[in-house]
Design brief:
By secondary structure, this protein is mainly α. The chain is built from 5 helices and no strands. Helix 1 runs antiparallel to helix 2 and helix 4 packs antiparallel against helix 5. Keywords: Membrane, Transmembrane, Transmembrane helix.
Length: 124
């Protein structure tokens, strides 16, 4: 089965929206579990696509991270999930600020990662 490109490219974001809708709609464990599954599937799809679409593949194996590669790849999504959990579970302003900071950090990491991986390595 082949999906049209518009649907295929936006499917992980639809999963994120479904996850958010499930978390916002209900408080039972069924909604929370289903929302978590949709969030995890969206993260896996985006990380897998990123790995296959890298233009800097020749230098990909030479990069050494302080964290294991699997943890490094999913860290921005983990920041986002923790931020969502904090926002849903508290009304304290300082913790809401921490959640906002986690969202900003996750977004920054994803934007930098996309920029670095979408262009071939230059000479300088």
């Amino acid at each position: 089965m082949v999906l049209p490109k518009v649907i295929y490219e936006n499917l992980p974001y639809l999963y994120f929206l479904l996850s958010g809708a499930l978390l916002a709609y209900g408080d039972s464990w069924y909604y929370i579990f289903s929302g978590a599954i949709f969030y995890i599937v969206a993260c896996v799809v985006l990380v897998t696509r990123s790995a296959h679409r890298r233009l800097d593949k020749q230098n990909y194996r030479a990069i050494k991270h302080a964290l294991p590669e699997l943890l490094y790849e999913y860290l921005p999504y983990t920041y986002g999930a923790i931020g969502i959990f904090i926002l849903m579970s508290t009304r304290q302003p300082i913790l809401q600020f921490v959640a906002f900071a986690l969202f900003v950090l996750a977004l920054r990491n994803l934007v930098c990662r996309r920029t670095n991986r979408s262009k071939a390595k230059g000479l300088f």
